[in-house]
Amino acid sequence: MKDLLELLTKALVDNPEEVDIKETVGESIIILEIKVSQDDVGKVIGKEGRIANAIRTVVKAAAAKQGKKVTVEIITK
Question: Whole-model pTM?
C-alpha cells in the first residue's frame, strides 16, 4: 500500500523528493500519512478534495483486494 501511495503522490507534486509516507499498522487497520511540502498541499488535495478522495479510493480498493483496511491522511510539513 505504501509503495502505491508514494507512486501516486510523487506523480502529482512539483517536489517529489519532499514526499514522505509514514505507515502505522494497527490490529485492524493500516494508517498511511502523507507529508508533502507546503507548496504541494493543494495539488494533493485538489479542488473540493477531489484528488484526495481519488487517492483514498484507489488505495482502499488495493487494500480490499488484500483483505485489509486502510486510512489515508494528508499532513503538511
Answer: 0.89
